[in-house]
Write a structure and sequence with these properties.
- The structure is a single chain.
- The protein has helices at 17-24, 30-33, 114-122, 124-146; strands spanning 5-13, 37-41, 51-56, 64-74, 77-84, 86-97, 100-111.
- It is α+β, with helices and mostly antiparallel strands and 154 residues long.
- It has one domain (5-146): Alpha-D-Glucose-1,6-Bisphosphate, Chain A, domain 4 (2-Layer Sandwich).
- Strands 1-7-6-5-4-3-2 form a seven-stranded antiparallel β-sheet.
- Helix 3 (114-122) packs across helix 4 (124-146).
- It is globular, with a radius of gyration of 15 Å.
- The relative contact order is 0.24.
- The mean pLDDT is 90.
């Protein structure tokens, strides 16, 4: 049975869905926002059918290489398939909220590379910490570089 890592994060931002969507669509800025994103090729950009090549270096002794296949992209939503050292699905949904907009990022990922599969089995808390670190740092860095604020205290 493959080991999976599920994540379901929610945030509220003090701006409209359209405004946050515009910031997220600035894919050329991703490596400037996120220094742990070692390599990034967004292909055709934030559009249906695009294929993004990613290389992520969490504060752990490994680099994760994968592709994001953008299956559905529309105003306020992205559904992806993940292939490479990790496999699975990830979904981002933006919705109107009384204070601006809400964002929900849900993913179900499994290590595909043999070294990562082994690490996931014997050191699951460390692997989860690395994944959470990327998400938490990613939010902080996005807010710092984009001028966006959120209501979660991040």
């Amino acid at each position: 049975m493959p080991i999976t890592f599920d994540s379901d994060r929610r945030w509220v931002f003090e701006e409209s869905v359209d405004s946050l969507w515009w910031r997220i669509s600035q894919v050329e800025d991703y490596t400037r926002w996120w220094p742990w994103l070692r390599r990034f090729d967004p292909g055709a950009g934030l559009v249906d059918g695009a294929s993004w090549r990613c290389e992520v270096a969490p504060p752990l002794p490994y680099v994760v290489r994968f592709r994001l296949e953008l299956v559905v992209v529309g105003p306020g939503e992205v559904h992806t398939t993940v292939r490479g050292d990790i496999r699975g699905e990830a979904h981002l949904l933006l919705r109107d909220h009384v204070e601006g907009c809400s964002a929900r990022l849900h993913s179900r990922l499994a290590p595909a590379h043999p070294v990562l599969r082994g690490a996931g089995r014997v050191a699951r808390p460390v692997v989860e910490w690395g994944h959470d670190w990327v998400l938490d740092q990613g939010l902080r860095q996005f807010l710092a570089h984009s001028g966006t604020t959120d209501e979660t205290g991040a």
